[in-house]
Amino acid sequence: MKMFSVSHKTVFVVDHCPYMSESSRQQVECDVLTKTRAQGVIPLAPVSKSLWTCAVECSMEYCRILYDIYPKDKLVNYIVSDSEFHILNTWKREEQGTHELMSGLASVGPPNPHEDPECCSILHGLFAAVESLCIITELQHERRAALMDTAERVANRGRIICLTNAKSDTSVRMLEDYVQETILEQNKVAASSDRRMAIQQCELVLLHIYPQGEDTLVSDRPKKEISPLLTSEVHSVRAGRHLATKLNILVQQHFDLASTTITNIPMKEEQHANTSANYDVELLHHKDAHLEFIKSGDLHMAGTSTRENTLKETVTLKWCTPRTNSIGGNELHYCTGAYRISPTDVNSRPSSCLTNFLLNGRSVLLEQPRKSGSKVISHMLSSHGGEIFLHVLNSNRSTLEDPPSISEGCGGRVTDYRITDFGEFMRENRLTPVSEYFIDSFEKLPVERAKAQLERHTRYWPMIISQTTIFNMQAVVPLANLIVKETLTEEDVLTCQKTVYNLVDMERKNDPLPISTVGSRGKGPKRDEQYRIMWNELETLVKTHAAASDRHQRVLDCITACRSKPPEEEERKKRGRKREDREDRAEKNGSKETDDKGWQDSERLKGLIDKEDQESEVIKDSPDSPEPLNKKPRLSTEEVQPPERAKGPVSLLTMWTNRITVANSRKHQEFVGRASSVNNKFELYQHLKDENGMDVHENGKASR
Amino acid sequence: MPTLVLMDVSLSMTRPVSLDGSEEFQRKNLAVHGLNMLFEHMASNYRLEFTALMAFSSLWELLVSFTRDYNALQEALSNLEDYDKTCIESALQGVSNVVQQEWGSACPCQVVLVTDGSLGIGKGSLRHSLQTMKHRGDDKKFPLPFPFPTKLYIMCVANADELQMTDAMDNLEELLHLSGGDGQIFTIEGPLCMKGVQAMFGRLIDYAYSPFHAVLHCGNLSSDVQVFPRPEPVVVDDEVEPMPRAVSTDLEIVGFIEIADISSPPVISRHLVLPIAVNKEVDEVGTGATDELEEEPSASQMAGKNPNFCVLLHGSLKVEGMVALVQLGPEWYGMLYSQADSKKKSNLMMSLFDPGSGPLPWLGNISHLGPISEAAENPYGEDDSKSPFPVQPQVKRSYAQNVTVWIKASGLQTDVQKILRNARKLPDKTQTFYKELNRLRKAALAFGFSELLKVVADLLERECTMLPDSAHPDAAFQLSHAAQQLKLASTGESQHADFDHNIVPMHTDFSS
């Protein structure tokens, strides 16, 4: 069904003239007496519905089914016609629903039998119906706005269902002509309005209702084209049961519905709770749920039965009692369609038993009865959020059967994927509906923000265990979890810094690291090398986030400030070895000792720098090391000041930078330009001017 | 999407192709050469496709049923025999039966019809079939369109000029039109020769059998993948949006959802997502690019040892019982999940949802799904005991809200009985009594059924007179109060017949 087919807009026009207050002559016994109390009581006379009541309740049933199956964008406008028209609702989405219509109907009340029949006419209602069809719906408006230059693709079609009591075939023709004229007239009006659209196609369905026991004065007529704009069909129906059946058939035709009867539903008997009888329940749904049957010509085999004057067709599917433990179900069925359902007999006991069972979260598989013995599960009934859907399950051979296993393809041989960590990552990146209220049209859509979060979380994400150290360390977890956040609080920064200090502490204690030994023989890298790898990795992780905010940057600064520096690392290496020496003395020899000593000396020469948090160990391990300059940690960039402006003691970073600069400068001769620059500027190609006194550009070639 | 090759083995296919100087070929040889080329391509680039081979003349025969064994197909091609005249209609009937028997009627299928453009003579010829198809009964309907979605490729071992001299081209075009219009007619450009037929099959390969390569992204993690079978473009509404939507070659994961929350969603197609080694050559779809997957064993072994994001994702999805929501294009989504074929084999699979932002009502608008970190409190609860799904619709469906329908007499009787049953248990059941009473009152007012209100009022009054002596005195008060209120409502006067008004229990006090 196209988005803007005639089914997008349905107008009900119901006759409210005095004649409609006549009895339908279908009697309902209200006073059903239970046997025990029947003695001596005269039952009350049965009631009978008026033509109006019949028309209203059958049209409401049509709407009930429609709203159950198409809760959105299949719209109804309800109009009542007597001496004038009464429009009970508009196309607005919030005015769609049986409760809204019932409320409107109650305010109109039953027709007044004493009103002057001459003043009353269905024509008032038909006029209002045509006018209403011209009025643009929210969906039409949205799509027109979205399509911009191709807005003409949004069509305006509609259907008018008119329930009335016509006098004769001639008066029916008169109604059709009137609708045709009104359309032409209203289309002209619509042309000059933004809120209206000309009607491109209108389907008029006239239902002539007459009381039981009378002969009809109007003959049935199948759909015929009155004009390119208008088709019309006439149904002459007796009020009561027949009208209900007719409207049930019409709603199926109009909205592409089909019927499925679930058979063999076991249900506890009201009287005998320990026995159960089997019941059938008929459901309506979109006919595509039967597509496979229709195409394969299996419709009859699937147990189509014809009931009620051979008008009704239904496909029978057998209930398969669900396994008791599979509530909700963590199984992903291959489902090719899911269609909303509406029970035909909504408040009958079998129907409500079935729907309540499903609404409580159970799913039921349905079996297609076949002539041959094989059992084929073709459908499943399941509810989602208080709505019941008929799922179509694929029962054919799959074209994807026997695929190569993922372990045979790229990356299939790798065995140490961080499966658990990625599982955790997936849980953190689960989604949740964001209420319309919080969606700002200027901001990114929630789904874009979800993608942005994935981007942040994966800036540094090694896929295998042997590729990472930090993600194998519990100690890093607090920092790793926080640093990926879009914004950090002061508290977060503090937590990150604590994590770093903790690592420094670990390093000082020479705690072992979970470094993978895959691919390396023996013990793997030395411990200080391990720490170097760990710090590098941590720095890589944090660097990818440093640009996000000052606070992120401060975490990075903390790491750069705290981690061991290469020369110190050498020293550390030495110390580490010393310790190892102590641990296994036998293996070490003197030559290494002297080597180490050399390092130690050069280290001492280089300056009075050390890290404040090495204190105790430094002193203990190598008494030659100087006392740290600062006891207080200095971690953030704010404290890094250019040396000339620094008044107090110089910061660690500054000292470090200076030392590196000095060290570097010794390794090469200074550029002439930089050495003789004025304010760090030096004019290039001075010699050209000196030699020729000419402009460089003009004489570039000549000078060569 | 399985392929069925329908090969013409009528006598006309044995017509020689005159080539100056060189060896003499029959048209059949050319056709077989082209098909061999197609099968070779598929064996290396499209090897998961199921293909069947059927030969036809006035009769048809299924030579190789649906298989991935391309050697068997090539073997069968080399053993073709020559038969009598061309009869396309019966062959198509055969196709219809074979495909439906194997795949049912919902699975889309590609049919490659190889012929020489001489479409038979007299009864059974395509011309005859097309002329008579409108005058037949239901039992002898023309087999096209097939019940399953079809792509029909007609490979003519003939050039266009030759076909246009007769009405062959017109007939073939009509055939394509009848099949649903999805497909193409290919002819040989220039003289009939090996090169010409290679070029023609090359065009078919480019059109229908080039592998779909994409990049699967999850933030900065990514993997090159082949999506098999190729996702086909989808038309949402041919009026509002006639341009088909194609799946993007960048598949972006947007987040993750539990399997129980996504709960067997309807999908339009399913595809394997196979990680592939990064290609050295830029040319992906060219006719010549045949050996992407047939690299030297050492290279493929290398690929097996390099960590691949797909394998990681698959492993975690499987362990956690989750799916990844993946964006396929603007307002188009799908899901990635682990699909187990058997206990040992499992795969990364992608299912496509209907295009649009709200394909699954129970997830709401997918574009409006955001990260849980932005929610005020974790919607899954601290211990994963809750879930924000399913999304509840704003209005309950009729079956979930105790609606009143009196179309069948039994519906009305049940409702009246319910009131009476509760009336007899007053004052214990006062609340239920009034609840049922008000429900009936509302419906009666909406349906303009004032007579019912009067009858029920009478019934209540009668109940009142029949109260046993042991009854609580309040029962009588409530019954006559309710009866009186119903009578007032039945007058239709606006002050008593307001739809939203509820009859409230009479205030009585028997405590003193």
UniProtKB/TrEMBL annotation, chain A:
Compartments where located: Cytoplasm; Nucleus
Keyword terms of this UniProt record: Cell cycle, Cell division, Cytoplasm, Mitosis, Nucleus
Region spans: Disordered: 566-648
InterPro entries assigned to the protein according to its UniProt record, in alphabetical order: Cell_cycle_regulator_Mat89Bb
A Pfam family annotated for this UniProt entry: Mat89Bb
GO biological process entries: cell division; centrosome localization; regulation of mitotic cell cycle
Protein origin, superkingdom: Eukaryota
Transmembrane segments: none
Biased composition (Basic and acidic residues): 566-623
GO-annotated cellular components: cytoplasm; integrator complex
UniProt keyword Glycosyltransferase, yes or no: no
PANTHER family per the UniProt record, alphabetical: INTEGRATOR COMPLEX SUBUNIT 13, SARCOMA ANTIGEN NY-SAR-95-RELATED
Family: Belongs to the Integrator subunit 13 family.
Protein name: Integrator complex subunit 13 isoform X3
Source organism per UniProt: Betta splendens (Siamese fighting fish)
TrEMBL record, chain B:
Species of provenance: Betta splendens
Similarity remark: Belongs to the Integrator subunit 14 family.
Cell compartments where the protein resides: Nucleus
Residues in VWFA domain copies: 3-117
Integrator complex subunit 14 C-terminal domain mapped to chain residues: 404-511
Protein name stated in the entry: Integrator complex subunit 14
Major subcellular location class: nucleus
Gene: ints14
Subunit structure: Component of the Integrator complex, composed of core subunits INTS1, INTS2, INTS3, INTS4, INTS5, INTS6, INTS7, INTS8, INTS9/RC74, INTS10, INTS11/CPSF3L, INTS12, INTS13, INTS14 and INTS15. The core complex associates with protein phosphatase 2A subunits PPP2CA and PPP2R1A, to form the Integrator-PP2A (INTAC) complex. INTS14 is part of the tail subcomplex, composed of INTS10, INTS13, INTS14 and INTS15.
Limits of the Integrator complex subunit 14 beta-barrel domain: 209-356
GO terms of biological process kind: snRNA 3'-end processing
Pfam annotation, one family: IntS14_b-barrel
UniProt entry keywords in alphabetical sequence: Magnesium, Metal-binding, Nucleus
One CC-aspect GO term: integrator complex
Top-level taxonomy: Eukaryota, Metazoa, Chordata, Craniata, Vertebrata
GO MF, any single term: metal ion binding
